[in-house]
Amino acid sequence: MHRQFRKLLEKATGSAEFVIAINVDIRGFSSFSKTVESTEVAVFIKKVYMKLIDNYFTNASFFKSTGDGLLIIIPYTEGNLEEVAVSTIKNCLQILEDFGNLCAKDPMINFRVPQKVGIGLSRGSACYLLSGKKMLDYSGSVLNTASRLMDFARPSGIVFDANFGIELLPDELKTLFAKESVYIKSIAERTPLDIYYTKDYSRISPLAKHPIAETKWRSINDKKTLKQIRDSAHYLYYLPSRPIDPNQIVVKISHPKVVRGRKRKGMSTKYSFSNFQYSLEGKKPCVSLACSALVNILEKAGVKDTFTVNIEIIYPET
Can you tell me the distance from the alpha carbon of 161 to that of 196, in angstroms, rounded to the nearest whole number? Predict the structure, then answer.
């Protein structure tokens, strides 16, 4: 495919049009991909892409995989803006309702799969690259904004900016959304941006209401061998201060990269670990890691009992 792309570039021309950019992200995909075989991940993501394209975005002009989701571009004109905006929001709402059972009747999906999606939308002018009748790519701030807004749609839901135009929607759709002002990295770092989000699905983090430059991040670090982790049920880490939002706590794991049972000198494997809980122990904030879940991941990666595992807990502090 990359050779075909290179050939198409020779005759490609650029232009611009008005589009709605939609970024659909599968929540929990990273942890899911660590618990099943790679062939099962491929089957699931393929089926999801096909369902989204065939059943919800039939009027799209362009699709691009984002690894754990899909970028969709839908063009509009002055004459059909309201129609396209309303149908797009309705389709996104339907995806929220359907996603948990999207692959339920597929005989190839006989394993547990992610149940939620987050969707970010924005609209405006975007540049495109066209070669003959083949659309090669889109670019522009509207795509970046959709991606950033998608990250606010947690644990699931739909988020769009005020410039999308909530006034385009009928009253029965407007009532599904609430308004908030948030700071967004590289887009609205000093002056907040107004957004609308699905109030029954999404929770806007308190962290998003703080100017990015004023947010302080704290981290604590620890080192354990796999054997030490295996010998414990949980590890409890007391935090030196309270997080602004406990949902923003991130646990990072790193260990030597293992190839054919041996360490790769100077190379490491890094990833986020989601199997932890935040709580208050005697008014002290703490994070508890589930050791058995971590052991399973480390063993799958080929880590041996004597290897050192780095544990880092990162959070925004008050």
Answer: 6
